[in-house]
Design goal:
globular; alpha/beta; disordered N terminus; 8-stranded mixed β-sheet
């Protein structure tokens, strides 16, 4: 999968950022990052591999060189270059082993060990105490319940806890698009059964489990020296597996006429706005936010932000260690302090994405959000665009999801005899959900609509970007795209 990273990352070269050209000052950054290479979802528990560890560590090194080190090309104003200052950074991940470990690996690259000289303290009695592991730096990772067990889950919405999102995604399985894929690709899946029959039986071998089947084979092609039925896995066949998995997961993660299935993208948008707004109102005290999460959130956000209009590759599954970044900046290279902090109308936001592991030889690319055609948006335009779909409060989440038990009981419809809360939904106003609020939301119990969920799908997991035009005819694309490298 990694062989296609460079192609995807340079898809829109006119908007690529030259690291050596910057007359700006970056005020803050929010990043959403996917985990590194892992074992297959269909053989739980999934675990981060050594390759995955290396991928996220490499990504952390790149973003250190971009934003943090003393000679960083887009250095965040006032950020500590070597010794981490905990108040400047906020990191979160769901309670999921793969995602938590990926976050830790990334942070090791972002803020590496400082060595004996900087990692030694002298106590009052004169004793010198040196930090273990060559001055290894400990950075807390906030755990959120929303998305718990994402990489072991058999279905995207099973970790969202949002009732209406579950209904919306279930609707995909009754759609004409899904049924056409299911019927037209059955012979294709029958032909590859010898490759997967140790894990999937004949009744499971269909487009219904397109992503899980692809994921199992993809992991095997990366890690296994021998594969049952390997002669059936031509480049064309593997490309078709990946293309079908992309179509399947996009259908579950986003639908323009029913965007409730994009609940994770809506929640992420609220978190992004909240963090960057805190950077502005706190005059730079909060400088970098990093969240690790599953690929479904990428797809949901891409759809909500109209990114497929820019490039249809955004309808594919994002690869391992992919990252999207929101840079908050002002158009000046002058020194900025709390007493000379720019006003909101002097601040801009730029969106960047990189498919797969980011490195000095494969850098992120800037893309215009919301169909604006503009690489950079004013802070007001950015927040207006995000707030068209962002969920920025617990009340709004409960109301839109149709969840009214537990914590959400406070926002139940007026039919309940208890008096309603004075604060009505804030609509488009808002701050994103903090990790603390996210944790509360994630703990909510969804009572409706999970009947039959177990039988729907085996799973979801690893992103890959392919052109949407290749999804038009899943069977015919085998011959049309012969020789495409996976």
């Amino acid at each position: 999968m990694l062989s296609t990273i460079a192609v995807a990352a340079t898809a829109l070269l006119p908007l690529a950022l030259a690291q050596t050209e910057s007359n700006e000052t970056v005020l803050g950054v929010y990043m959403f990052h996917r985990h590194g290479d892992r074992t297959a979802k269909s053989t739980p528990p999934a675990n981060l591999t050594d390759l995955g560890y290396a991928e996220v560590y490499t990504s952390g090194q790149y973003y250190r060189n971009r934003y943090i080190s003393s000679d960083a090309t887009y250095r965040i104003n006032g950020i500590n270059a070597d010794l981490v200052k905990q108040s400047q950074i906020a990191v979160s991940a769901p309670a999921d082993t793969v995602l938590q470990n990926s976050a830790m690996g990334f942070l090791q690259g972002l803020y590496p060990p400082v060595g004996d000289a900087m990692g030694t303290q002298t106590l009052r009695n004169g004793t010198n105490v040196t930090s273990p592991l060559n001055g290894y730096q400990l950075i807390p990772i906030s755990l959120v319940s929303s998305g718990t067990g994402s990489e072991d889950a058999g279905w995207l919405q099973s970790t969202s806890n949002c009732a209406k999102a579950t209904i919306s995604s279930n609707n995909y399985f009754n759609s004409e698009e899904y049924l056409n894929y299911l019927n037209s690709t059955q012979d294709f899946y029958n032909n590859i059964l010898p490759v997967i029959n140790a894990t999937f039986n004949a009744s499971q071998d269909s487009f219904k489990n397109a992503y899980t089947i692809f994921d199992l084979i993809n992991v095997a092609l990366i890690h296994n020296s021998t594969i049952s039925g390997a002669d059936l896995l031509t480049n064309e066949t593997f490309f078709q597996l990946r293309t079908l998995a992309d179509a399947h997961e996009w259908g579950l993660a986003y639908n323009a006429s029913d965007d409730m299935r994009a609940i994770t993208g809506k929640t992420l948008a609220g978190q992004i706005v909240e963090f960057l707004n805190t950077t502005i109102t706190g005059k730079g005290k909060s400088k970098i936010g990093v969240q690790f999460g599953a690929y479904g959130t990428f797809a949901s956000f891409f759809g909500l932000a109209d990114l497929p209009m820019v490039n249809p590759d955004f309808t594919g599954v994002a690869d391992y260690a992919s990252a999207m970044t929101f840079e908050l900046f002002t158009n000046t290279s002058a020194t900025i302090s709390s007493t000379s902090y720019p006003s909101a109308d002097e601040i801009y936001v730029r969106f960047l994405f990189h498919n797969g592991t980011t490195s000095n030889t494969s850098e992120p690319v800037a893309y215009p959000l919301f169909g604006s055609g503009m690489e950079a948006l004013s802070w007001n335009d950015f927040t207006n665009g995000m707030n068209n779909f962002a969920i920025g409060s617990t009340e709004k989440w409960c109301t839109e999801c149709g969840n009214f038990t537990g914590t959400c009981a406070a926002y139940a419809p007026a039919s309940s005899s208890s008096s309603s809360n004075d604060g009505s939904s804030s609509g488009s106003g808002g701050n994103g959900l903090s990790p603390a609020v996210n944790g509360v939301i994630g703990a909510m119990v969804t009572l409706a609509v999970i009947l039959g969920l177990e039988a729907i799908i085996l799973l979801v997991g690893g992103l890959r970007v392919v052109s949407k035009k290749r999804l038009q005819s899943p069977v015919s694309s085998l011959s049309e795209n012969a020789g495409t490298k996976a």
